[in-house]
Amino acid sequence: MSPQTPRYTATAIALHWLLAVAIVGAFGVGLYMSDLPLSPTRLKLYNWHKWAGVTILALSALRLLWRLGHRPPADLPMPAWQARAAHAVHLLLYVAFFAVPLSGWAYSSAAGFPIVWFGVLPLPDFVPVDKPLAHQLKELHEMLAWGLALLVLAHIGAALKHHLIDKDGLLLRMMPARR
Predict the structure, then answer these.
(1) pTM
(2) First-last CA distance in the chain
(3) Strand pairing partners for 116?
(4) I need a labelling partner for 158 at 20 to 30 A (CA). Which of 44, 62, 91, 94 fits?
(5) Does residue 70 carry a pLDDT above 50?
(6) What is the mean pLDDT of residues 66-91?
(7) Contacts from 94-100 at CB under 8 Å and sequence distance 24+?
(8) Nearest partner of 63 among 103, 12, 114, judged by Cα
């Protein structure tokens, strides 16, 4: 990457990587906890998963607000279909950043399990307690989480393709700056 290649802002880079770690962590905990028998460990992991979801929702809101006020660097030269695909995946990622935690919050509310963020801040119920609705929302949350996972894999795959094959510096624009 040449010194003239525009980079994302330090704030955008920090929010990107914080969200990446939080999403991968929440997905991993979600997969692991769902098959555990009812136990203190399972209950603890469910709380951690909820806390991560609320944190992801807050970070997503911050990231979206930052993005609306700060234009990203211009696209690097690439075929038009790749640019359209990249923009579509980014849009779907932003939608999923909100849809996955909101569907989890709604599921938790419908199941009658309140969310108390980090055990300190009680969040309002998103929907009334309704066990049949909770079952549907759980399925929706799982489906959306798997959709987000696929989008993340596509995003990573495209970034690696640009870095390893195209060698166009695209990935380096989102890496923390070296001093």
Answers:
(1) 0.92
(2) 15
(3) 122
(4) 62
(5) yes
(6) 94
(7) 94/60, 94/64, 96/144, 96/147, 96/148, 96/151, 97/19, 97/23, 97/56, 97/57, 97/60, 97/63, 97/64, 97/148, 98/57, 98/60, 99/144, 100/53, 100/56, 100/141, 100/144, 100/145, 100/148
(8) 12
